[in-house]
Amino acid sequence: MIGSTGALAVRQLAYKVNDLAAAAEAHHRQFGSGPFFVLRHVALASSVHRGTARPFDHSSAYGQWGSVMVELVVQHNPDDSALHEMFPWGSGREGLHHAALFVEDLEGEIARFERDGAPLAQLSVTSGGTAFAFVDTRATLGHMLELYEPTAQLAGFYDFVAAAAMGWDGTDPIRELG
After folding, report:
1. Does the bond joining 119 to the residue before it have cis omega, within 30 degrees of 0?
2. Pairing of strands 68-75, 58-65
3. Run of H or E residues at 111
4. Signed CA dihedral, 145, 149, 153, 81: sign only
5. Other CB atoms within 10 Å distance of the CB of residue 83
6. What confidence score (pLDDT) does residue 178 get?
7. Average pLDDT for runs of 10 along the chain of length 178
8. Domain ranges within the chain, ordered by starting residue
9. Beta strands in the chain (DSSP E)
């Protein structure tokens, strides 16, 4: 949510990885993050990349890293996407893809970023109805930004991941979600 200073706070850092389990184990070892909750083949109702409907078959692992959620993401299909703009299919490259922000008005913020020179790269909607947008801020930030409205379902998931990290003893660092 927008903070008292009017700033859009970073809620998540997301990294493109090649192997979810290996990346989650490594992140946990290096930073103490986790536990990581894996959602395979995130169900989408729609996905539009640069104005064209395209499949975006991806899986993600979500863990807590201090006060910020960390997402590790792998795309399973070779189709164009905001992820593949930075990490082309088959390149094997990994790295920071986006920082995620909660916004009060998704369409309004997409338009504002567009006016500021950061065009919409991709707009996807989960089967549960949560819309997320990648705006292309690579020219100014070196990575994309992901924007979404903090629906009760989404905010609840963030709270669930953060709560799992509270007092966590480091066991069972990778957990499958249904």
Report:
1. no
2. antiparallel
3. helix 106-115
4. negative
5. 23
6. 75
7. 59 97 96 97 97 98 97 98 97 97 96 97 96 97 96 94 96 92
8. 10-167
9. 10-16, 36-39, 44-49, 52-53, 58-65, 68-75, 95-102, 120-126, 131-135, 144-148, 174-176
Q: Which two tokens stand for residue 174?
A: 């990778």
Q: What is the pTM of this model?
A: 0.94
> Measured at the alpha carbon of residue 160, what is the angle toward residues 15 and 149, in degrees to the nearest 5?
65
Dist. CA 134–CA 22, nearest whole Å:
26
Give me the CATH topology for the region 10-167.
Answer: 2,3-Dihydroxybiphenyl 1,2-Dioxygenase; domain 1 (3.10.180)
Per the CB < 8 A criterion, the answer to whether 41 and 35 are in contact is: no
Q: Which CA distances in Å does 2 have to 8, 104, 149?
A: 5, 8, 11
Report the Cα–Cα distance between both ends of the chain, in Å, rounded: 28
Tell the burial category of 5 from Cβ atoms under 10 Å away from its Cβ (0-12, 13-18, 19+): exposed
